[in-house]
Design goal:
Layout lengths: L11 E5 L2 E7 L5 H9 L16 H12 L3 E8 L2 E9 L9 E8 L8 H16 L3 E7 L3 H9 L3 E11 L5 E10 H11 L1 H6 L1
Parallel strand pairs: 5-6
Antiparallel strand pairs: 1-2, 2-3, 3-4, 4-5, 6-8, 7-8
Length: about 200
């Protein structure tokens, strides 16, 4: 797939341990697979998204946004099953058109195997192609492993939003906001090459 919106060719096949996944752009035709993937995710892992993406209308809106290129999303597939996805959400009409919000979701049985890192790196390449200057990511503060991964990849904590989201049981949760200077990655790319830069 050589869509000019992407700076790298897809699909991309990655070997992660004894298994392999194919990463390719998500399209509106993936609505059914995406819905199944989301329904199998723990609710707590979805609290960072502003709307409940398990709802059919929200899934439809997500697919419509992909269809009209209002944001881009990558999906990871294993034997025809979606096992992870990453997205970069931007708003060119806002006061922060240079900022992209990064969203990454990994199926529970694929966590700890390097898939999250791979999707984040792929999204970095997209952000660089878009000319974005900054990426942000949000998650509940108890997602310690995810926060550690993002920090390892160069994200820094900017804020903790107290009592920012409420789950279906009425429990409130704090959200951590982290960010990354994409321009700094661009500088490393010029010095070391894209793969080395994305792995730092």
């Amino acid at each position: 797939m050589n869509d000019p919106i992407f700076s790298r060719p897809y699909p991309r096949s990655l070997s992660l341990g004894k298994a392999s996944v194919d990463i390719r752009p998500m399209t509106a035709t993936n609505a059914g697979a995406f819905g199944l993937f989301i329904q199998n995710m723990p609710e707590h892992d979805l609290l960072f998204v502003r709307r409940d993406i398990r709802h059919p209308k929200v899934i439809a809106a997500w697919m419509d946004a992909l269809e009209h290129k209002r944001f881009v999303s990558l999906a990871a597939w294993e034997d025809g099953e979606m096992v992870g996805c990453g997205a970069i959400v931007t708003d060119p009409l806002s006061w922060s058109p240079q900022v992209g919000e990064l969203r990454v979701l990994i199926a529970p049985h694929w966590r700890g195997r390097g898939l999250g890192r791979a999707l984040i790196q792929e999204c970095f390449a997209i952000a660089l192609g878009f000319g974005l200057e900054k990426l942000t990511v949000q998650m509940t503060v108890d997602q310690v492993a995810a926060i550690a991964l993002f920090e390892e990849l160069g994200f820094s904590a900017e804020a903790v939003l107290r009592n920012h989201v409420k789950d279906r049981e009425g429990n409130v949760h704090d959200m951590a906001l982290l960010s990354h200077d994409v321009a700094e990655v661009q500088a490393r790319m010029q010095t070391y090459g894209i793969q080395q830069a994305l792995e730092r």
